[in-house]
Amino acid sequence: MPPFQLDFQLPIRFGLKYNAAAGTDSAEEKEERPIIIHRAILGSVERFTAILIEHLAGKWPLWLSPRQVAIVPVGADQFAYGAEVQAVMRNEGYHCDLDNSSKTLQKKIRDNQLAQYNYILVVGKEEVENKTVNVRTRDNQVHGAKSIPQMLEELQKAIKNFE
Asked: Among 26, 42, 55, 86, which one has the highest count of C-beta atoms within 10 angstroms of its own C-beta?
């Protein structure tokens, strides 16, 4: 059930008044200011969330994002390494998904950008050998290969700076 609210300010802003009898025995009328009682379809938390979604256009900062990191293996051979990276990220407290679908690499990257993941970590044969990840952001900027500790440091820095 939506919450009901008492509004004391709108009657003042709209200059609302009504004439009320001064008492039951008196025929004198006295001007009174009404109180508006209305139903709030959305509560304050919902309104705030709606405004935030509209303002950010779904591009949540990393510290607030429900989709922080996506790991995109190039092929089935890299699924195991992708799962290792995912486990490390999750152990550090980040929301991390592994895209082990059979789509092409370009399609996986594009889908994860459209899903508004803050970071997209591509893992291929070279990354498996070097124990690195190839970092992209949702705005299609390629940041290059980074080791897992370097990536974790970047994530921590982004959260610390409210990015």
From this structure: 86
Instruction: Please report which helix (H) or strand (E) contains residue 157, including its range.
Output: helix 148-160
Q: What is the mean pLDDT of the chain?
A: 90
In 3D space, the residue among 59, 64, 66 whose CA is nearest the CA of residue 159 turns out to be 64
Q: Would you say 111 and 119 are in contact if contact means Cβ atoms under 8 Å apart? A: no
69-160: CATH number:
3.40.50.800
Tell me the one-letter amino acid at 112: N
Tokens of 50: 């709606």
pLDDT grade for 44, boundaries at 50, 70 and 90: confident
> Could you read off the pLDDT of 56-81 as tens digits, one per residue?
988 999 999 999 999 999 999 999 99
CA–CA separation, 102 and 9 (whole Å): 58
Residue extent(s) of CATH 3.40.50.800 domains in the chain: 69-160
Q: How far is CA 78 from CA 65, 88, 117, in A?
A: 26, 16, 20
